[in-house]
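Subject: Interface between my chains keeps coming out wrong

I've been trying for a while to get a sensible model of this assembly. When I model each chain on its own everything looks fine, but I need the whole thing in one frame so I can look at the contacts. Pasting all components below, labels as-is. Any help appreciated, I'm running out of ideas.
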Amino acid sequence: MNKVSILLAEDDTNLGQLLKSYLSAKEYDTILAIDGAEAMKIFKKEKFSLCLLDVMMPEMDGFTLAREIRTIDPHIPIIFLTAKNLKEDVIEGFKTGADDYLTKPFSMEELIYRIEAILRRSTKRAADVPAAEYTIGKYNFDVTRQLLTYRDQSRKLTTKESELLELLCRHRNEVLERNLALKSIWIDDNYFNARSMDVYITKLRKYLSKDENVEILNIHGKGYKLLC
Amino acid sequence: MNKVSILLAEDDTNLGQLLKSYLSAKEYDTILAIDGAEAMKIFKKEKFSLCLLDVMMPEMDGFTLAREIRTIDPHIPIIFLTAKNLKEDVIEGFKTGADDYLTKPFSMEELIYRIEAILRRSTKRAADVPAAEYTIGKYNFDVTRQLLTYRDQSRKLTTKESELLELLCRHRNEVLERNLALKSIWIDDNYFNARSMDVYITKLRKYLSKDENVEILNIHGKGYKLLC
DNA sequence: TTATTCTGTTAAAATTCGTTAAACGGACGG
DNA sequence: CCGTCCGTTTAACGAATTTTAACAGAATAA
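Reply #2:
Try treating it as a single job with all components included. I did that and got this:
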């Protein structure tokens, strides 16, 4: 999946920084603009998946900014943030084509979920989009078909093998933490599931042994690192 | 554009009637159910573009209802209505895949705008409204006639074959969970029905074997995924 | 060093799934 | 009413997948 990039326009630097670091922690590439004019400048230069706009800003208010943004990209999802809870304001927001409207104070969790709800809709059919594939050294890994191919030999992976290899690929050349993998694939990171994961690491190592430049490295006490 | 149809589940008859007449005035075909169980019954019989669900209802609460609805149509937009403003509740709502979440009291205008914001996003997608026909690789599947066609050869499917294939199509390229399929088609997800479903999967695999790009993948311990 | 925790590997056990065929039961025509 | 057909369920067995167990070896901290 492509990385999600967010344009955040917020003149309150405290809140702005807070939001930016929170969103970045959630793996959203976030760029912060401190007023409407700057936001517009940045928007013209870069590509974004979604806009998060404060309504009350110096230079250019959120609604005006939204309209200008929409002249460039008429379909980009826009969420307004505002301190006011005025009915007229909310209506005005949706008239400019808002996809959502959040009144301060809101919880970070709710923001994240609303962002995800919108992205789910707008990037939908991502499932029809070309199958996710990884190149692992001389191997090719087709995630959706769970197929690991070396030259002309294909091996059909089981569900667990495939899930684990995909996680390793997503973190390739960096550490995939044990707990993360366990919680993500096995849901629960207890002793037995950890043993089970060991077994799968052994299997994957065997499958990947034909290319000596590919290696699943153990980082003691941390996790594994797929080198390729 | 097709007419927009809304399933409204609201146990407060006053509010329910008010919403229904307001939405109908805005040219949305609206059907009102007075509890979760009735809503589910109606949903199974008719096609809807969007669901508007009260959270607190007798018989079946909104979240449970939403989950059941999503087992049948995993992509239909859902908006929750609630009197509570609890953070936990909002989060729970989005976790079940809500597209929006409105806290009473809200203005009719805001509701309309939120509905339109969601429809704007979701009708961009091609096969959104429950299709009567699916294209599965080189196959064509006519749901109402229960006819599976490959080039010039048509095969009349039995009821169960057809129901299962339709569910797979609605979830195509994503996992259709075993117990969800069982509860939706066989009503009860006991051991024997599960065996029965296996038999039908085998049959469908045979029927679909002429296009090698089409595949019913088993996700061990979870369910099946129709790749096409 | 020594004890302890963590990892690697193999095999057996448990669970889940795939396939074929036979049994069941309702609908239909005679 | 009786047999036949058709869709569905049940049964039986084998295969695939995942988990558990057992033991050996490595890495680390005290």
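Reply #3:
Confirming on my end. The domain at 5-122 of chain B is CATH 3.40.50.2300 (Rossmann fold).
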